[in-house]
Protein 1
Amino acid sequence: MGISALTPPPLPDNVQETLLVLEDNRLLIELCGQYDRNLAQLENALGVSILRRGNQLALLGDPTARLQGLEILQALYARLETGKPVDSGEIDAMIRMGAATGAPAALEQMDMFGGAPVELRTRRKSVEPRTAVQKAYVQSLFTNDLCFGIGPAGTGKTYLAVAAAVTMFIGGHVDKIILSRPAVEAGERLGFLPGDLKEKVDPFMQPLYDALNDFLPAKQVQKMMEEKLIEIAPLAFMRGRTLANAFVVLDEAQNATSMQMKMFLTRLGEGSRMAITGDRTQIDLPRGVPSGLIEAERILAGVQGVGFNYFTSKDVVRHPLVARIIEAYERDDHAAG
């Protein structure tokens, strides 16, 4: 690795610095970002100052913050050396997770199929988990026939599940992809929607279309849907079916009733895998109607072949403000409780 860290002799108490020497100037430019915005993001988050001196970066500030900044910069540089980009989301994830190991998550994550980094390869892009929980979740998606991803919005639960579905389909491990979610309005009445059945349910299914279009060319998605290799349908349409040789994803599962959840779980057929994602804090069911996700979590705990993965605000991979919003709501809930 073309990188080294130097800690010079102690300076006066008000000036503490650690030097990071980077051999590849091209990667140094990418590491710093346009107008040094990557460095500015680290400075604001950690409370340190980062100065560029030729092929060196000098970190000034509190020793603990400098050490964390050093580890994150080393991790980001190692990521760039593998040919992978660095963006604000990656930096934010490393800051929130602490980058305790001093190496990029992507390099540490060992694939359940034999030692390679955990990376989901689709036709349009490669996707890798950014946090330890996301890594465990991806591993669970491949090792358990039934996998639950439970946690707040923006943590990649559905996105990674759809990426895993596409990866397994491309690899020939399943014959089709089935994506479903309850058609429940989120706190507002939409009234009667115009159009045929597909046009009526598409607004509820749009997040699933968005994820698919990230991984497959639009024309291929359309063709696969025409050939029934990809199905996107409301949860109610699953009754009476046996879903064999398929990767099945149920999104927004907190809005499934107990009866719907039991119905869906018993659709699992030979050669299939099922991923169920949900957020227990965003239940839109009528008052007094219990959530099938919460019930399934209680009933299936400890059942062999069922994996549960729990996300927190630290796993949010959307705008950094989303994590802070979730944490604020959590604090308010705890205070009210």
Protein 2
Amino acid sequence: MNIVIADDHPLFRSGVRNLLEATEDLIVVGEAGTGAEAIRLAETLRPDVLLLDLRLPDFNGIEVTERLKARLPELRILILSMHKDDKSIFAAMKAGARGYMLKEADGAELLQSIRMVGGGSAVFGAEVATRLAGFFEDKPPEPFADRLTGREREVLGYIADGAGNAEIAARLRLSAKTVANHVANILNKLQVSDRHEARRLVRSYRSDRAD
């Protein structure tokens, strides 16, 4: 998995690079100290994951995320920040980041998060996840969420939006066979007969929450 690190603190970049270089599956292919450099490297190197600081000298991480997601929708972006306020977290999510980690997280948590984001999952550090849970605690959980894996929920979201297997495979960078297996598992776990019924189930739930 190829990684680009974008942070304006050389010592922090060096620490993260050393951590990743001790693994066999994560390769640092570039480093950036500004938002402009992050955008250039991402477009040139096409990494699997961009580790992105929220505060950079020129563009902030939100702006970089918005620009890159518009140009490289398949790029997975993991925000690394010292900021844990709701405004920063939700702005990153809205811009298209796949994860939000605090820089104080330990190495094992960071490595796990990078791998999960690279694999297509959305990841938030323990403290960030607690804040998110508190924000949504007054809203009922999806009645089917605990039946599905993270990847299956992601596939189900695309199904609900009307995407076919080929489109889902392209977006998630999976094989058509893998997507077909996920769809079959989703239908079985939700106890519905086809993807159209699954789509109606999700849309009905979304409509109820909107009301």
Protein 3
Amino acid sequence: MTKQIHTISFLSRLLDIIGPRRCAICGSRLAVSEEGLCGVCNRHLPRTEFWRSPTDNRMARLLWGRIPIERCAALYYHEGHSQAGRLVYDIKYHHHPELARMMGRMMAEEYASFFDGIDLLLPVPLTKKRQRQRGYNQSVEIAKGIAAVTRLPVEEKAVQRVSFLGSQTQKGKWERNENVEGAFQLVDGSRVEGRHILMVDDVMTTGATIAACAQELLRARDVAISVLTLCFAKS
């Protein structure tokens, strides 16, 4: 075992010499023990700490009265033109699914108690066309990272996105609600019935997308819903 650990360490160091890995936020060279983010950028991510009060926080309050939520949290605050904001942009538009998986693992490790009682992870789906254009669904990749730590199953077949009417980014609250009305469809309720579902997404702003998807899931029998996103955008 010791020999294998030394071999892995040697290979990691050799690969770092050949092709140095860079921090996804600041671009500085990563140490062998660092993954995706350097220690400085990781420490300075504007964490929400929502996990400390998962039933009553800014994110949860946006969903009150729209869908029943067991718990709700995000890892950090998102601001579009900040260094941390570029992380999500790179994940979505610069083809870095490995960063999404890495951030999923980070969330699972930091939020260990958040997953108590959860039965499965359900990433918010993209339309097939949108996923072909991007090459992957970033929410699925985040969920895979979470699953690697928690061993929870990832459910991708219960609900599908049937329409995409453009990005939510530049839309107001009411436009966002209208933009996702009827956008999701429950296709196999048996896959989620009787389960506590953790919906996983990259960013939540007004909660319109989460609420629209959850409303379809609630058509299945006896489901409970919680929400975890990589970041929360202050609207």
